[in-house]
Amino acid sequence: AACHAFRGPTPRNASVFLEPGHAYVYFIYGSCYMMNVSAEPEGIGAAVLLRALEPFEGIDLMERHRHTTRLLDLARGPGRLAGAMQIDRRLDGVDLCGSGPLWLGATDPERRRASRVGKSVRIGVTKELDRVLRFYERGSAFVSGPMRLRA
DNA sequence: CCAGGGATCCCCT
DNA sequence: GGGGATCCCTGGC
Questions:
Q1: Span CA (A10) to C1' (C1), Å
Q2: pLDDT tens, A49-94?
Q3: Which parts of chain A fold into alpha helices (H)?
């Protein structure tokens, strides 16, 4: 029920219904963009919100976009992530598996590390609070949310 | 901790 | 067609 697709398609959420691997970007709280990835076959509304990232490359650019040099604050939190990456509604609907302006790729082998995926309830929603639909890298300082949801 | 920000969509006129 | 509640938050007290 907390999914934007819950009440069916609208002009705003159309990208949620695209085939998997497309961007769904929306503006919220008068100040932030949220970056999501569509996640079910075309016509089915489902998407994953990107809540944080660990900066590896382009850190100087991210610092400029975010007006801070604090590495931990560059992209920790969904609004900050979009800010650091300069993601806005222009990227809504783009194919993230193609050669467009934004894409998802495999982790650089040199950056790969042993990690465990933790699961928890979601952050910032008010419906279906018991559902375990948040996934994160256990123990990472770059994960967003309260400490108890990062262990 | 909390105000602010603006788009969107509900639902009732 | 429009008022108002709501929104997967952030920065600055």
A1: 18
A2: 999 999 999 999 999 999 999 999 999 999 999 999 999 999 999 9
A3: 59-66, 71-74, 78-84
Residues 99-118 of A with CB under 7 A from strand B: none
Q: What angle do CA A20, A88, A45 make, to 5 degrees?
A: 30
Q: Compute the distance between CA of residue A69 and CA of residue A50 in angstroms, rounded to an integer.
A: 21
How far is the C-alpha of A39 from the C-alpha of A48, rounded, in Å? 7
Let me know: does A106 contact A40? Beta carbons within 8 Å: no
pTM, entire model: 0.94
Q: What's the Cα-to-Cα distance from A97 to each of A38, A71, A100, rounded to whole Å? A: 11, 27, 8
- The reply to whether A28 has its C-beta less than 7 Å from any atom of strand B is yes
> A71 CA, B4 C1': separation in Å?
26
In this complex, the answer to whether residue A124 has its CB under 7 A from any atom of chain C, a nucleic strand, is: yes
